[in-house]
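PROTEIN DESIGN WORKSHEET
SECTION A - STRUCTURE
LENGTH: 217
TOKENS:
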């Protein structure tokens, strides 16, 4: 597959807000979480936690906002609130299957690098019929680093022995795009309603910025 003058051999794809339309659900869960404690959701909360895994987000939230519950209790509350939505309601974003079909046809290795938890993303991906497209799936819990670090992407490159210049990283969050862009990957930014307030920064750290996957077909 040729893109931006490069031969693409490996695709590292994000999940939430990139392949599936789930960020609105997480926003409501966060709003409800703070409201339950008599608080308004902090303005910069999404930007601070969007690239972290569930445990790291629980640690950040408890530490910074004086939440009395334990990290385990916080995670359970979030998990219980989101499980039904992921299992039954979260939809694919437009043209995702067509794009995955195209990658398969072009013999590009397809991988997933997500900040979500396996208990949520796996049933969702299977319901949506995209799970079997992926040659490898890794989440930030495995590498103990959020996507402010390139560690999760480098793990995938090392596994498949593919150079960064032949790898696309497709993300909807500016933090993740900045990491990919500054560490030698071909960064592709995806529009998402939840991160539209940081659209200019996303474009700054994207070699290519798309409204949806039709733009790549």
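SECTION B - SEQUENCE
RESIDUE ASSIGNMENT:
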């Amino acid at each position: 597959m040729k893109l931006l003058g490069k031969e693409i051999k490996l695709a590292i794809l994000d999940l939430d807000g990139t392949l599936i339309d789930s960020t609105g659900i997480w926003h409501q869960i966060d709003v409800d979480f703070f409201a339950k404690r008599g608080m308004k959701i902090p303005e910069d909360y999404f930007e601070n936690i969007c690239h972290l895994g569930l445990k790291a987000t629980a640690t950040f939230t408890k530490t910074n906002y004086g939440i009395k519950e334990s990290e385990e209790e916080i995670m359970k509350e979030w998990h219980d609130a989101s499980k039904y939505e992921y299992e039954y309601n979260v939809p694919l974003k437009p043209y995702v299957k067509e794009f995955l079909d195209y990658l398969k046809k072009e013999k590009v290795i397809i991988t997933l690098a997500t900040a979500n938890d396996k208990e949520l993303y796996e049933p969702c991906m299977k319901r949506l019929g995209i799970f079997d497209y992926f040659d490898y799936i890794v989440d930030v819990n495995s590498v103990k680093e959020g996507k402010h670090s390139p560690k999760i992407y480098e793990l995938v490159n090392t596994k498949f022995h593919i150079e960064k210049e032949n790898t696309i990283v497709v993300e909807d969050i500016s933090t993740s795009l900045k990491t990919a862009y500054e560490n030698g990957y071909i960064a592709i930014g995806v529009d998402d309603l939840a991160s539209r307030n940081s659209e200019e920064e996303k474009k700054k750290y994207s070699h290519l910025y798309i409204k949806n996957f039709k733009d790549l077909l």
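SECTION C - NOTES
The first strand starts at residue 2 and ends at 3.
DSSP finds ten helices and eight strands in the chain.
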